[in-house]
User: Which sequence fits this backbone?
């Protein structure tokens, strides 16, 4: 499995799962409708805070468990949601992609994809085949909101 560093040179690491050569999380956080620009910036801030201080600090208004059996969570900012799971070392957040909230529940397709990626991550972790891109300096992989 391949991961891209989003916020890495901090206390905790925030990664995005790669699909081919692209990172759906990075794309979600850097592009989209202008009306969601403030929410995208807010999600970037939540990821930065998670990297600095961990996940324990977030209220249920900002972080929510969407699939308890599989340990899939979402960051919340406005109508935007960013799905993730916790890595096995306790110091890693792996983002799987985002969506615009349109209903009460997280879209089952998005959650199923996050579950598949978590299973792939766990298998790769066990096999020692996780590849990480973008961990070479303090700014590596940080999602730059100016790229919109």
Assistant:
């Amino acid at each position: 499995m391949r991961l891209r560093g989003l916020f890495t040179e901090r206390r905790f690491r925030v990664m995005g799962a790669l699909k081919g050569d692209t990172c759906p999380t990075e794309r979600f956080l850097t592009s989209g409708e202008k009306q969601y620009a403030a929410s995208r910036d807010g999600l970037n801030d939540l990821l930065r805070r998670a990297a600095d201080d961990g996940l324990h600090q977030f209220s249920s208004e900002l972080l929510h468990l969407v699939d308890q059996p599989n340990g899939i969570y979402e960051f919340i900012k406005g109508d935007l949601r960013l799905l993730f799971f916790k890595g096995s070392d306790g110091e890693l957040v792996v983002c799987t992609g985002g969506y615009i909230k349109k209903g009460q529940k997280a879209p089952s397709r998005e959650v199923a994809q996050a579950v598949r990626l978590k299973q792939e991550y766990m298998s790769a972790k066990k096999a020692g085949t996780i590849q990480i891109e973008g961990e070479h300096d303090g700014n590596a992989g940080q999602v730059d909101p100016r790229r919109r």
Observations:
- The first helix runs from residue 24 to 30.
- The first strand starts at residue 2 and ends at 7.
- The mean pLDDT is 88.
